[in-house]
Amino acid sequence: MLGGARALCQALLAAVVLACPFAALPAAASPDESATVPQQAPQPLRPAAGQPLALAPALRLEALGGPAFDLAQAHGVTVVHFFATWCAPCRTELPALARFAARAPQVKVVLVDVAEVPARVRRFFADQAAPGPVLMDLDRAAARAFGVSLLPASFVIAEGRIALAAEGEVAWDSPETDAAIAAVHGSGGRPQGRSTHTASNTASNKASNTESQEEP
C-alpha cells in the first residue's frame, strides 16, 4: 500500500516538474538539476501592478571580484536579474541580456547569483563576460525579499520602484523590450541607438522650425 502511494507521489511530482516552464529554486542547487526542465520562448517584460509602483526591496550585496553594490545608491533605471549557473534557461538568456546591456549603457544591469559558491560562479564567467556586476546572494535573502521562486527572474527598477518584471527568459533582443524600458524613466531607460535617433530627429525639427521662422 505504502509502495503504491509513494509511486503515485513520484509520478505526480514528475508531471509537475515537466509542466514547469522555468527552473524552480531547489533546496541545494546542483549543475544538472535544470536539465529536465523544458524551456519556454522568451517573453516580454510586464508592467508591475499598483499605483504608485511598489518600492524595490533593499539590495546590498558583495560583488564577485568588485565592490559591494547598493541599489539604494543607484539612479535612473536598473535591471536586477536573478540567475544561477546550473539553470539552463539562465544560461540561454545571458547572451541576449549582454547584447541589451551593450546597446543600452544608460541602463544599469546587475546580476544576482542565487545560493552558489563564488568559486563556481567565477569559473562560469571565466569563458564569457558578464553583462554587469555579479552580486552574490549566498543565503537567498535577496531572492526571498524580491519574491523570487523561479529562475531566471528580472526586475526593472526606476528610481527605487519596481516598474517591470518577468519570471523566465526575457526577449532582450526585441524592440518591445527596448520600448518598455525606454518608457519607464524617460531618457534614462532609452537604448543608445534609439536615443541617438530621437536626438537627431529633434535637431532636424529645430533646424526646420528655425528656417521657417527666418523666411519672410
UniProtKB/TrEMBL annotation:
Keyword field: Redox-active center, Signal
Signal peptide: 1-29
Cross-referenced InterPro entries: AhpC/TSA, Thioredoxin-like_sf, Thioredoxin_CS, Thioredoxin_domain, Thioredoxin_ResA/DsbE_sf
Domain Thioredoxin: 50-186
Name of the featured protein: TlpA disulfide reductase family protein
Originating organism: Xanthobacter oligotrophicus
SUPFAM superfamilies: Thioredoxin-like
UniProt biased composition (Polar residues): 193-216
Domain of life: Bacteria
Classification via PROSITE patterns: PROKAR_LIPOPROTEIN (PS51257), THIOREDOXIN_1 (PS00194), THIOREDOXIN_2 (PS51352)
Start and end residues of each stretch annotated as Disordered: 184-216
